[in-house]
Design a protein that fits this description.
The complex is a heterodimer of chains A (254) and B (405). Chain A is an alpha/beta fold. Chain A is built from eight helices and ten strands. Classes of the chains: A alpha/beta (254), B alpha+beta (405).
């Protein structure tokens, strides 16, 4: 794992994170003893097959769910014990989400969809619009601001979602299978967008089952049966060339 | 870190946008409340209009009439009759508030038929059976009668027991009497009476219109007429109730209950009664429709919550707290109720106005109804939105994001 120089440069640090669900009377561990540190400006991919616990990990990283054990420090703040209100505050102010299913409000305009992520963080109405237009411009959709998402293609919708995720200037961009619903050409342009955001200094954690997508990141972490392991440099490079990674991973969909 | 918050202005615009983005559904949802509120408004409006109408129908004529009859008992005329005193007119006219009083009674003339010419004419019928009544001099004013020609008998005719009669217009037509200046004669059996006048019309006791009317003294002299059976009193406006109580006592201080008194019902009590009758029935109907409307809003808001699970999850992800979600849905349902209340009040008032116009009534509506109806609608929406809002707020962000698209 990457050694991080100082705490100030660490966006998130997981230590011994575990998450168990109750399935009837039986406790099922979705995550066990997960350690992960992501430095500021890093682009990390978490790769694993479905059912491996990667969605659970994303939910915990995004403060949508809380771990049953372990410590989670987000920007130096211990967040695993925070109450609902404080977790919502950290989530709303410091984390941007990009989902596989886009999660756009289909009845609202593209611009309104983007301003939504500043609605609860005390940004003035006029400033919201200005920043949303700037964010849309940065993903190349300034001409689509007044459209409804139903009139956009899949790739354009995901660009709107990315604009929404970055407009509030988060410390962390969490992407959950951002290319899962897109064809390979569109996927490529979306991943290009992530590369550009990475170059701009944004910290990105992307979850995917697709090794070739994961290979676009600075480093890859594999999750399997709720346990994390680092992906070797050689393997990472191999993934980058489009090959299959690991016997256990499901077929690529790119 | 500073908790996230949502400005009231933003909350309002989000709720309005949420409703405006699905206009057809919003309108259909609001419809239930519209019907409920309009039913309530129309009910109250129609009741008030009708109540006002009933008071309006109480013209001066009936409000100033008091009638005392000697038909005693519940069934009227069933029991033995107590004769009205001969000086009834005097006794009543002394009461303060009486403007005119007269008595009248039926005269039993036996087999006597009325005719003008005593000729046996086989080709034409010239004898008629016509009711004969005895009346006091004051009766003409008491029934607000007008003479077509001639005049009504006075106290002189009464005291002399003159053989004179006044004809009702129906009787005059039958007997072919169209002039009285030459003092035509009417025969009752073999007895001749001078016709001294013909009535044009009476406002009360309309049976006079088809009768032959003679002074009471004449009736006593020629027939076995003993006493009048009806005292017609014309009273000043507002005095009806009082005179109705005093008249029987004045007529028979020892047994005032022997007579039956007809007084006009008090306008106030009548209006309240009508409004009460109409209101209690239709207010229940209106309330039921409003309840149905509320259930409709609750149902649609609940469906809307389920349908917008993804939106709820997303809003939680971008910083919305549970209370922000609850408030948004609560405000949406309240706004629907408010809109329904405004539309319902409008519709209800239209119904009242159209109904009144079709009957030439004056629409009457208390000002608090159009003001209060939208509030009632809003409260309906608020109450209806409580459960769905709590459902929406209780959703975990993880589940909401997973379930919704």
């Amino acid at each position: 794992m990457t050694v991080v120089e100082s705490d100030a440069d660490v966006v998130l640090a997981l230590e011994g994170i575990g998450r168990t669900y109750l399935s009837g009377e039986v406790e099922v561990a979705a995550l066990a003893g997960v350690d992960l540190t992501v430095g500021r400006g890093e682009y990390v991919s978490i790769v694993g097959p479905s059912g491996s616990g990667k969605s659970t990990l994303l939910n915990i990283l995004g403060l949508l769910d809380r771990p049953t054990s372990g410590s989670y420090q987000f920007e130096g703040l211990e967040v695993s014990g925070l109450d609902e209100t404080d977790r919502t505050a950290v989530r709303g102010r410091r984390i941007g989400f990009v989902f596989q299913a886009f999660h756009l409000l289909s009845h609202r305009s593209v611009l309104e969809n983007v301003t939504l992520s500043m609605l609860y963080t005390g940004v003035a109405s006029r400033e919201r619009t200005e920043r949303a237009r700037a964010a849309l411009a940065s993903v190349g959709l300034e001409q689509r601001a007044d459209f409804t998402p139903t009139r956009l293609s899949g790739g354009e919708r995901q660009r709107v979602a990315i604009a929404r995720a970055i407009v509030a200037d988060p410390a962390l961009l969490l992407a959950d299978e951002p290319t899962g619903n897109l064809d390979s050409k569109t996927s490529d342009s979306i991943l290009g967008l992530f590369d550009g955001l990475r170059a701009g200094g944004l910290t990105i954690v992307m979850i995917t089952h697709d090794a070739s997508v994961a290979a676009r990141a600075d480093r890859s972490v594999r999750i399997r049966d709720g346990v994390l392991s680092a992906v070797g440099a050689a393997e990472h490079a191999q993934g980058g060339s489009g090959g299959r990674v690991g016997a256990g991973s499901k077929g690529t969909r790119s | 870190m500073k908790p996230t918050h949502l400005a009231w202005r933003d909350l309002a615009s989000e709720a309005i946008a949420g409703l405006a983005s699905r206009p057809a559904r919003t309108l259909l949802t609001v419809l239930g409340t519209v019907l409920g509120i309009s039913a309530l408004v129309a009910t109250v409006g129609i009741a008030q209009t009708a109540g006002n109408r009933i008071v309006g129908a109480f013209d001066e004529l009936s409000a100033t009439s008091v009638v005392v009859t000697n038909e005693s008992g519940f069934w009227g005329g069933g029991g033995p009759k107590t004769a009205l005193p001969r000086d009834a007119e005097d006794r009543i006219s002394r009461l303060n508030g009486v403007t005119a009083v007269g008595v009248m009674g039926t005269v039993n003339v036996g087999e006597d038929l009325a005719s003008t010419v005593k000729i046996d004419d086989p080709t034409a019928r010239n004898e008629f059976q016509i009711d004969v009544r005895a009346a006091s001099p004051g009766l003409l004013d008491a029934v607000k009668g007008q003479m077509r020609m001639g005049r009504w008998f006075d106290a002189g005719h009464e005291s002399r027991a003159d053989d004179v009669v006044v004809l009702g217009p129906g009787a005059a037509d039958k007997l072919n009497i169209h002039r009285v200046d030459q003092q035509p004669v009417v025969f009752l059996g073999d007895k001749a009476y001078v016709v001294m006048g013909v009535l044009r019309d009476v406002s009360r006791q309309s049976e006079l219109l088809n009768s032959i009317i003679m002074p009471e003294a004449t009736a006593r002299k020629n027939y076995d007429y003993t006493s009048a059976s009806v005292v017609q009193i014309d009273v000043a406006i507002g005095a009806a109730e009082l005179i109705g109580k005093q008249a029987p006592i004045a007529l028979n201080p020892s047994d005032p209950k022997a007579y039956r008194t007809q007084v006009p019902p008090s306008p106030n009590s009548l209006r309240n009664k009508v409004e009460g009758d109409v209101n209690s029935l239709f207010l229940i109907l209106g309330g039921v429709s409003l309840l149905v409307g509320a259930i409709g809003i609750a149902n649609v808001t609940l469906v809307s919550v389920l349908e917008r699970i993804g939106e709820i999850g997303l809003r939680r992800a971008v910083g919305a707290r549970r209370r922000h979600i609850a408030l948004q849905f609560l405000l949406e349902s309240t706004a629907m109720g408010l809109v329904g209340g405004i539309m319902g009040a409008t519709l209800g008032i239209l119904v009242v106005v159209i109904l009144s116009a079709s009957r030439d009534w004056t629409p009457v509506l208390s000002p608090w109804i159009p003001i209060g109806a939208p509030f009632l609608g809003a409260i309906t929406g608020l109450v209806a939105g409580v459960y769905p809002s709590m459902r929406a707020a209780s959703l975990e962000p993880v589940e909401a994001l997973r379930a919704g698209t």
